[in-house]
Each structure stands twice: as structure tokens, then as C-alpha cells.
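Office hours follow-up: a student asked to see two folded examples consecutively, so here they are.
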Amino acid sequence: MPDYARQRQIMVASQVLAGGATDERLLDAMGEIPRERFVPGDKRSIAYADAPLEVVNRRWLLAPATFARLVQLAVIAPGDNVLDVGCTTGYSTAVLAKLARRVVGLEEDADLVRIASEGLHAMQVGNAQIVQGALADGHPAENPYDVILVEGAMEQEPERLLAQLAEGGRLVGILHYEPQGHAMLYLKEYGKVGRRMAFDASAQVLAGFRAPAGFVF
């Protein structure tokens, strides 16, 4: 039987920490949450691989190191209200729930909403829930958010999500345009949102975040 606990510790040491994520709360959370429980049974053997993982058709978990660096970039505080956009099967939401006061995981697909909800229930995660809706629209019912994490790439600025940030709020995600994608930090200060590139990164573009035909960045 696979020793998933051992694989998890190796992931944290050789991928997450070695990849530049050093926040101890985050390392502890990723060392505790069983990633294998959030992937299909036939893919559990590669749950801790150093690569994105397709959990259903055209929907992926971010590579562990990429996910960790994005989360660290957001500087999540224990009192924060977090929106996890494109949470797929709920792994990311479970990790974020270890760091924040409240987490809302957002998914479009009803089956993924069910799978993620069942996963959080099985893990007895009490400060998070999964809701269904268009990813690019966010979840205005519980805004403003201190942190919004986009679990995939965007080809254009996420304006509807940025509008849901609290003052001092941060949005992190991967802005993807040819030939390279970049992890971005958006910060709302004095009612305006600024942005900066943080590091090179790549991911699959999420539904609703593709640029219109003819769009030039």
C-alpha cells in the first residue's frame, strides 16, 4: 500500500520548499492535507507528482510548487475571507482553510461541486464551503474578499473578481499570454487596484478567462 504520508512529506521538502515557498503555516497545511483524497482513484499513484494533475477532463490541480508560491504571494492571514476560484475537487480549498478564517470554493461544474463538498465534509473542514457559479463572475454574495486565488491561467484581467476585493485585498493568479505566463499579484489600495509580476508560471486557461478573438495584450 502506498505510503502517502511519506510522499506528502517528500513533496513539501523537494517541491514546495525547494521551489521557494517558505511560509511555515503553508508548509504545515500542505504536509497535513492528504492530496490523494482529492484525485480520482486511478491517479492517486501520481497525486504527489511535480506537475499539474488532470483530475477530470480539461480540469487540473496546479503543480504543488506553483500552488504554494501563489498562496504565499497572497500572504493569507488567519482572519482573512478567501475566495478560491476554480477549486476543482477541493484540495486547494482544504489547504486554504488551514490558513484563513473563511474560504469559499467556486466551481462551475455540478459534479465538481459535489465532489469538492464531499471531500471537505470527509476532512471535517468546518470553515469552508463550495458554491456553484461562473468562475469569472466570482461569488459576490460573500464579498468583499481579503484574498482571491485563481486556480489556473487567465488571458485577460479578471475585472469582475477584482471588483470583489476588500480594501487591502490581494488577488493572485497566472496571467497567460504568448509566449510566457506570469504569476500576478493584484493589490487594492485606496480604492484602486495595482498589479505586479511575481514569477514565471504556466497553467491551463480557466473557462471564462479566455481573451476575445483578436485581443492583443
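And the second, which I mentioned at the end of office hours:
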Amino acid sequence: MLPLRYAGRWRIAGVAVLIAVLIAALSPAIWFMPDMREAGLFLSDKWLHGMTFAFLTVWFSGQFARSAYWRLALGMLAFGGLIEVCQQFLEYRRAETLDLLADVLGIVAGLVIAFAGAGGWSLRVENWLQPQPSRH
């Protein structure tokens, strides 16, 4: 983890984000995309997986050093696997290999964004929010 002043708060926020994603992934899809079939957007679910995992990867890259990104990627992959395992036990959801593939593509996109400069963003936010000493 990066040397963050508010590391505990970042962890709590990260867990809250993961819980929100898990709840959304285990909720009936009709709650989020009621007209998906009629609109012919059968791939929108995969886009949603990819964007979600890109966001999660960038989020957590804000708290971890680049040297830990491989662990971040494995953690995100495990989280995607957990979602698919949980979905197979629900009558109104299906576990799909293509969902996991979309997660992987999102993780890769998130890592590219992190390596391109977004990584460590939470440390920059903390520094920006820190009051600067006044110069007289």
C-alpha cells in the first residue's frame, strides 16, 4: 500500500465499492437494464463487466504501488470469479465464461490506465487536499 495518510478510510471506501459491485452483480439484471433484449443490446452486459473492472482496477491502483499491480490484477480476477460462482446459484442470473473474459479485458484496460499515469491517484488527492503552509 502507498504511504497514505488516510489508508484506513481508503480501505473502507474500497470495501464499500466492492460490496456495491457484488450486490449489483447479484441483483436481477432487469433492475438495471429492463429493455436490454428489446433494444438488441445483448452485448451491453459484457461492456458493463469490462467498464466495472476497469474502474475497480483504476480505483485500487490509487492505493497500491506499481510493484503490487500484479497482485491487484489477481485480486480483481478472483473477485470476478467470485461473482460468477455466486451467480450460478441464483435462478435469475447465469454464470458466463464471457463475463469473466470481459472482466479480464477490463482489468487489462484498468492496468493500462494505471501505468499511463492514473496509478497512485489517491496519494495525489491527499496531497491536493492537504492544507499548504502559508508563506509570508
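Two things to take away from it. Residues 97-118 form the longest helix (22 residues). The radius of gyration is 17 Å.
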